[in-house]
Amino acid sequence: MTPQNMFANLGSILASLMFIRAMFQQYFPHQLQNFLEKYSQRVMAFFYPYIQIRFNEFTGERLTRSEAYSAIENYLSSTTSMQAKRLKAEIGKNNQSLVLSMDDHEEVGDEFKGVRLWWASGKHGVRAQTTLFNPVPDEKRHYRLTFHKKYRDLIIGPYLSHVLKEGKAIKVKNRQRKLYTNYGSYWSHVVFEHPATFQTLAMEPEKKQEIIDDLNAFSKAEEFYARIGRAWKRGYLLYGPPGTGKSTMIAAMANHLGYDIYDLELTAVRDNTELRRLLIETSSKSIIVIEDIDCSLDLTGQRRKKKKEKKESGEEEKEPKKKEEKEENENKSSQVTLSGLLNFIDGLWSACGGERLIVFTTNYVEKLDPALIRKGRMDKHIELSFCKFEAFKVLAKNYHKLECHHLFPKISELFEDADMTPADVAEHLMPKSISGDATLCLESLIQGLEKAIEEVKLKAEVEAKKIEESAKNEAKEEDK
What we know:
Elements: H1 3-27, H2 30-47, E1 50-56, E2 58-59, E3 64-65, H3 67-79, E4 87-91, E5 98-102, E6 107-112, E7 115-125, E8 139-148, H4 152-174, E9 178-183, E10 186-191, H5 205-219, H6 222-228, E11 233-239, H7 246-257, E12 260-263, H8 272-280, E13 286-290, H9 293-296, H10 302-313, H11 320-332, H12 338-346, E14 356-362, H13 370-373, E15 380-383, H14 389-400, H15 408-415, H16 422-429, H17 438-479
Parallel strand pairs: 9-12, 11-14, 11-15, 12-13, 13-14
Antiparallel strand pairs: 1-8, 2-3, 4-5, 6-7, 7-8, 9-10
Helix pairs in contact: 3-4, 14-16, 15-17
């Protein structure tokens, strides 16, 4: 038989099969068609040893995008996109890189614990009417997973859990991080682009490494927190004089862990209910920050104490009109209480979500209520004090790329007696001209350190005089 005759016979057979199929669909009862299709699939399943699982892009009448589909998309883009011959490219959220993913109707392989399986991307059209108010696409995308039926338990259990976990982790890593602030009980945000890192943070290396190790241990401790029955969160109290880098430390923590920041302004929160609502709306992998908490609200009960003392001493407002205005202003202010804040930190509602850091900053730690900063609420207390020589070397490297200089020994000696914050040191190191002469900046720093030492000595002399005068006055009173 010649090739021409073979192709002619093949065409006739295919045409006959198509004709029979069309006649079958048109003249055979619908119930019979369903019956034959049902049992034909069972026969095929008996001989076909593979199982298929389909993950659709949308769920719930196409209103929400499936989290499983998104996680699988992220997982495949990072682990199997090198195998695909046809890829889709999109601009990443940082607008600086391309994100590659499988094109439609493409298939790639994967391996898990020695088991081979296959992922395929597909789409199929749907009959849906699009209107101005309901622009529904006319196609649905999906991923299809194929594997041998004898590995059913392994794939449906551990493998899919692995894919979803890795996909969500990749999403968090590649997402555009945000800085949130609250207006009343609602959050608004901007893109978080602070450049601070632990490498550029002016701090003693040992203390810096201790904080990094603590953060790393926390971020990997989900199973540990679940085992001991505690919410996956940790509190940090940053305290020290103004200008010692508390806000910079928070930015470095966020950049190190890849977390969002929620900058909570307590004075804008009306009451404990709004505070609880804000907590619920925060996401996992975030840092909740309350800066200068000693200045935010009167949370130590001092206001009540003062009122009680006034009542006991019989003091009252002399002018009723001023008294009414004062009470009206107090009613308009935030009604957040210490109890409400404590519940926010480690109450039942604090367990909603997970992987959160709660950070308080203050310049005067002694003003805070002990219940607010005890261990279990503020787990780690970090004192950020005046700049020393090791921290100075970090700033010198940041500002002038200096590893050593002939003025360093003198600066090291001055730092032993001077109290200067990292912010003041940075101001001296800031280039004063276009040339950015490092020597001029170091000489300016030396002058500043010498002046700071003189101020410390002068302050000590003044305090000594006060003590001496106080002792003299006490002696005179005893003589009387």
